[in-house]
Amino acid sequence: MKKALQLALLLSALACLLPITTASAGISPAVLNGIAVGLPPSGQATVPASCFLAGNQCALDEVRISRASAGPLGDTPPPDAAPTLDVGCDDLGIVIVHIWGHNALGEWSAWETFLMVQDNFDACDGGASPIDAPVLEVIVGLSYSPSGQSSDWQVHASDFVAAYALPNGGSAWFSFSPDPADSTFTLSCSNAGQTISRRIYIHDSEGSLPAFTETYLTLFDPYGLCNTGSGGQSFPTYNGLVYTLPAEQQIVLSASDFAPCCDGRAYAFSADPADSLMMVGCDELDGGLLQMAIDVFGFEPDGSYSAATTYVILQDLQERCGQGAFTPPNDDVCNAIAIPVASAHCPLLGTNAGATAQPGEPSPPAGDCTAVDAWCDGQPAEQSVWYSFEAPSSGSVAIRAGYFNTQLAVWEADNCQDITAGGAILAAANDDSSDNGIGEAALSLSCLIPGKAYYIQVDGYAGAAGAFSLTVEDAGLSCLIAGSSPECTSQGSASEASGHQGWRHIYGQELGLVASIAEMGNPLGAIEAAYQTNEGGIRTDGAGQPYLDRNWAISAEQQPAAGPVRLRLYFSEAEFLALQSAAGDIESPASLFLTRVPEGSCGPYAEGGELYEQRASGPFNEQGYYADFEIPGFSSFYLNGSAGLVSGAGPEAVAAPFRLFPNPTGASAWVEVVLNNGGPVQARVFNLQGVVVAQQQYWAPAGKSRLQLPLDGLPPGWYSVDVKTGAQAWKTSLLRLP
User: Fold this and answer.
1) Does the domain made of 333-474 have the CATH classification 1.25.40.10?
2) Which CATH number fits domain 489-652: 3.90.25, 2.60.220, 2.40.230, 2.40.10?
3) DSSP alpha helices (H): ranges in 510-635?
4) Worst-scoring range by mean pLDDT, 35-39, 123-127, 476-480, 645-649?
């Protein structure tokens, strides 16, 4: 019997009854300042660590409990820390415990609180008994606010319950006496200023012996709201919460942390509903501890309120304040913290206090404060920190950085080094969301590449710094590929800031995506794009080689002058499968090449062109694909296999396969070509002004050859490479690294 009872306690007690909703929970985890447990007739009980949690519970992925020990705490729990703690007759009275919480960043934090062990069955004096009885754990103290609507009101026994275990299963209910019907207690304005002891009884549907655990409640009315007729209804708060100082050396308290239930009220620390947050840190501590009385205001929908008095304890058990100035671990973009895209609201705690801007770190252009592609303080990045996420299958996310006047930017890059080397592309940015009065930044993004890594930059407006909450959720927004268009359908993109380093999406009919262009420092001005889809059999060039049943023609006010631009083209799954079935050398979208016809127009392929290797490709929004290229200018575009498109008149043939690698590169690069005939090969390197700055002559046989191209003496930057032999010619761009 005893063994079975202990197992039942362990299993059922793990379901703690602290009904914090994620919608109202604060950013900082906290623990209750005390839980009371009544020993059952067996004289033994099991207490789960998780039952002490309040505040932002979802910020922790593991919780342990251990008995407090002398000496300083380390950065990890002691060996005896476990998810539960067993207590018995040797523990009657107060047991000081440490609660250990592990967060998503891999850090452990510790809180010191207590467990009050009671022997209400006299099991420790009269000896253990095999009689079945529930085990009840209750919150040590609730503080109630007065009711402005009446002189007395009801409180419920269930308000105090933290956890319970039923030895024989079934259902449980709670009361203030041995009578199960006595589930409420009348509190009145005459009780203001009093501390009232109460017993909380537990009963079960299986006929077990009732058990009780003692606790207390308080009522304060410092604002004279009781029975005024204009105040709000009474509500309970925890009579004290314990916070611990994190490595960031500051923490944000939320007034909603102190409300044990989800009653729909808004909570604040004053009569101003906007005053819902409080930031505290090392400056407020005295000897490593802060103990402070606070008032919590609860607001009704009509704006009326009541107020409860409670207190907060802030501890520095791990001596964070003595560790010197704090620098966030994700100050550098290559140390960006990877965070999952969640389907539910669970904020991550971060800070930009002590952060710096890196050399070469990008920042969004100046613009309107509520814009989705700009910051409005007129400043570059100042105290920024970095996170990364992998775009979900929907290609859309919703991001919010809360708790002070934050700024957000989302960047796309092939790797973290590209962020500070000029290769980042802005996906979106925001300074102030339109639904918040303190300047919190928020974004909803769509048309992201599923599975691709993106980088989040969090900064503060005009150099503001502090702790913030960060949420990244799947927004579930659609981004469709433009549908069929047998006629060349022209679309436009308004002129934007000169050289804007962000994606400019061009949409077709019914807001379908046609193409995306990143200027990469080139002031292109207005952009116009047209596209056409082929409804008949797969199209072929003059040599019978098939190409995709979708083609594009794009023009800009100004052609690129500062280097190549990025072009992302979108096409349907059906179009790709038709091309794949007709072409023997196309196994996947990664096999596609781009034919650019500089003087071409929208319509089927006619003649001429240059062949470009793709940067990337893959699925897009579960309905098609994308292919990404780097191009020197705009024109008409076709997607085809590696052999290139030809008109049938030899000199106009598109070049055979060509590759320049590595790219970017250092002192040299390799040129790989497939020659129709053996002979001399000339390679020339041009700067952005069109001046030849390097050239090399080779002789190569027919077939594939690999030729080394020296780049000694060239300064870092963008260059154009031109390779020719007979009727074959290739062009591409090259980035020379320092």
Assistant:
1) no
2) 2.60.220
3) 573-582
4) 645-649
